[in-house]
Amino acid sequence: MRILSLGVPLPGAPVDNHTFANAPTLFDYDAVVADPRALSGLIEETVSGDAEHQTRAGERVVNGSSGNDAVGLADLLRSRRDEAQRLLDRGGLVVCFAQPNAVHQGVAGFSGCDRYCWLPAPESLHYGEPLLRRGSGSEIIVLEHDHPFGPFMEAMRTKLTYHAYYDETAPGFAGAANVIARSAGGAAVAVQLKVAQGSVVFLPPPARPPTSEARYAFSNALQDAIRHALNVASRSAAPAWVAEYDLPGLSERIAGRDAAKATAEQANAELLEQEERVQELDAYRALLWQEGAYGLGRPVRDALALIGFRVAPPDADAPAQLHLEKSGSGRRVALLEVEAGIGAAGMAAHYRLRRRLEEAIAAGHPKRGLLIINGHRTVAPADRPPQYDDALRIAAESLRYCVATTEQLFHAVRAEMSSDEVTVAAFRERLLTTEGVLQED
After folding, report:
1. What whole-number distance in Å separates Cα of residue 321 and Cα of residue 149?
2. What is the pLDDT tens value at each position of the chain, 441 positions in all?
3. DSSP code for 243
4. Which of 88, 247, 264, 336 is the most exposed place for a label (fewest CB within 10 A)?
5. How far apart, in Å, are the Cα atoms of 429 and each of 78, 187, 326, 333, 405?
6. Percent of the chain having pLDDT more than 70?
């Protein structure tokens, strides 16, 4: 899990803290946390010239046209909106500490600029009047304690103060929003909005910035809520074509589950057992259509472990290594990266893997690499175009690491479950010896 925090200081290993100007690309993260006042400050300072801001590439942010060593403020804001849209399109999460909207004048080339101009909204909604209204209060009542952000709100509610609330009569709100907490008078002060394939969660901000140990407690609680939210989102419904990809014994387990559901007198304990038995196998079909650290990263690690690798660490939050014991002595090690999307896999995962490979070389422990991809994930595997860009193929051949698809891994899982040890052993060997894209047999 990777979190980008914009204007909200959050200590913690998974969190990168930056400004709206110098942050890396938003869609390279699983979640973004933002204080919209930080963007307002950047806009006002750039327009007035009271302070200078730079991008991550060292370009000055100017209130004008983009040039050789400068980026126009309007272009920066549009880029951030495009990046946020792409993050949400792939199921990402944006957590925003809500403030009333503010319109900024004088931004060259950008009419109607406001502090939420970077954040996509559900269709027919806008992060201003009549949806987002100015208000203030400190009494917050958590409604959904089992919501991913419920425990965070409960733990921090005495330290939060809402500055805005949501008009639930605004057209389109009811179909897009889930109210997490209300004020003492019943106003919605914490909500989750469905945007594209992802979510935007608006929370009341801290009454005052946490300091010292309180800042770590605040950050840890927020990270737990984000981790839970991403994990819940990874359990969305599978596409219909997944049913065509059977696994040995899965149909029988589904039949057992359905029979238990159809028989009213079946004990709840039996139904739960049948459901767990189905999920034990059905989870591997996520290899064919899921994405993200929890949705895909976890099934990939489980599948590799099933076919004979030792995966360390098994937790999807940290980069993984694969270990395979040699027949004699010692072991072989490969660094694992996973990439998925609605299009072909590009170079993002290559850059992550290359950095790790170079660090291993610098440490005197060179290792192989393995990149598992799930390109065009919403299309049935048999109908997919090439799942990787040609640039990725060339890069993999150059660095001599293997690129394999989740479909290939799925078939290896099926072979393992069918006790086809010869096929599984050959697949393991090919993962560790292929230089470039692993071709079908």
Report:
1. 31
2. 889 999 888 888 888 999 999 999 999 999 999 999 999 999 999 998 888 899 988 899 999 999 888 999 999 999 999 999 999 988 899 999 999 999 999 998 888 899 999 999 888 888 888 889 999 998 888 888 878 898 888 888 888 999 999 988 888 888 788 899 999 888 999 999 999 888 999 999 998 888 877 888 889 899 989 988 887 666 566 778 888 888 898 888 888 877 777 665 555 666 667 767 777 888 899 999 988 777 888 899 999 999 999 998 866 667 889 998 765 546 789 999 999 988 999 898 899 999 999 999 999 988 999 999 999 998 999 999 999 999 999 999 999 999 999 999 999 999 999 999 999 999 999 999 999 999 976
3. G
4. 264
5. 47, 60, 11, 12, 15
6. 93
Residue 256 · residue 277 · CB < 8 Å: yes
Where are the domains positioned within the chain? 3-233, 240-284, 286-437
Which CA distances in Å does 17 have to 24, 26, 283? Answer: 10, 12, 34
Of the candidates 51, 57, 56, 25, the residue with the CA atom closest to the CA atom of residue 38: 51
Other residues' Cβ atoms within 10 Å of the Cβ of residue 4: 24
Give the largest Cα separation in the chain, rounded: 73
**H helical segments located in 263-321:** 268-282, 298-306
- The bridge status of strand 15-18 relative to strand 3-6 is parallel
Distance CA 90, CA 304 (A): 24
In this prediction the pTM is: 0.62
Map tokens 């990439």 to a residue. Answer: 339
Residues 6+ apart with CB under 8 A from 68: none
- Reading the block at residue 133, the tokens are 């209204």
Structure confidence by residue, pLDDT tens digits, 117-144: 999 988 888 888 888 999 999 888 888 8
What is the 8-class DSSP label of residue 293? Answer: I
Joined together, the tokens standing for residue 160 give 């939060």
Q: What SS3 state is found at 393?
A: helix
| CATH (one of 3.40.50, 3.30.70, 3.60.21, 3.40.1350) for 3-233 | 3.40.50
The two domains 3-233 and 286-437 share their CATH topology (first three levels equal): no
